Amino acid sequence: MDIDNGVEEEEEEFGFSRNYFLAKELGGSGKKSACKLSDIDLVDEQELGAAASNIEPKHEKEVVALMNSYRILYPKWVFELRCGFGLLMYGFGSKKALIEDFASTALTEYCVFVINGYLQSINIKQVAISLAEVLWDQLKTKLATTSGNLPKVQQPFSSRSMDDLLSFLNGSQAQDKDCFICVVIHNIDGPGLRDSETQQYLAQIAACSCIRVVASIDHVNAPLLWDKKMVHTQFNWCWYHVPTFAPYRVEGMFFPLILAHGNTTQSAKTAAIVLQSLTPNAQSVFRVLAEYQLAHPDEEGMPINNLYTICRERFLVSSQVTLNSHLTEFKDHELVKTKRHSDGQDCLHIPLMTEALEKLLMEIRQ
């Protein structure tokens, strides 16, 4: 009996394998579909936005009760901020309205500084400069009321280095622990703050004696942005699961609608990933084009002949054919667009905003 069962199992396995390879052969011999992603009839962006805005909210009573339950925690949150902790809000739904309500009702005694991390690009040094200016104004007011003597005029914050700004924010000027600036960061895991260097600076800012951070995250992998020191020592997070089930209306405005037309501009991060897969010479050619575009923002683009001349002088290409091969790669990845100049010649243009293009150049130079 055992022998018969073994033979039957072998026959079943053989039959399954034979059918598998037959199916592969038949599938390979068939005609391939001519359908392309570009053939999909996408909805107009305005039409899609209008349809999304007309979606009726559900479970309104339950959501209101949920928000009221969070408001009971406001005194506890303020106490934790005064003790030197940071607050990190996570959970499904936009936390923007919740955090703003907390700041406007429970933090009225403190200065609140807001960073919208859902924006595509944020200058972290400008953030530090603004925080230093706010703290300086507070110190001037405090010294004027207590001693009557105004502090001496010092070097402008805009001309200081990042280390100097951090030293000022963490200085011994603010002796009162109850006197601090509350930094609200909507989407600390957003695209404008997601890189490692920015997160390091944010952690150093959060560790300053006169800074307290209230932030929100939405990406499932957001905690991977930080190491143990950043979480427990610098940010010093108190984690709060506060699902609001609110739509991401404001945050979503700054992201392209994948089901709609009219959003072909690539982010600097995506472009950097694509460029890293290309040869060093191709990256150098792209850098020449990017630097020209930044230096001539009012022009329609860089003429191909000018690009070839510069690349030839820098020994980046040996012929027009070599340059064309690089340009083909750029166009295939939608890194470069071709425009017809008013004088009739073709010009090359990178479809990125100035700030994004500057950030991209910094990334490919590293």
From TrEMBL:
One of its GO terms (biological process) is DNA replication. Residues 296-355 form the Origin recognition complex subunit 2 winged-helix domain. GO terms for cellular component: nuclear origin of replication recognition complex. The keyword Cell cycle does not apply. InterPro entries: ORC2, RecA-like_ORC2, WHD_ORC2. Residues 65-242 form the Origin recognition complex subunit 2 RecA-like domain. It comes from the Eukaryota. It is found in: Nucleus. Keywords: DNA replication, Nucleus. GO terms for molecular function: DNA replication origin binding. Transmembrane segments: none annotated. The keyword NADP does not apply. Component of the origin recognition complex (ORC) that binds origins of replication. DNA-binding is ATP-dependent. ORC is required to assemble the pre-replication complex necessary to initiate DNA replication. Belongs to the ORC2 family. Component of the origin recognition complex (ORC). This is Origin recognition complex subunit 2. It comes from Carpinus fangiana.
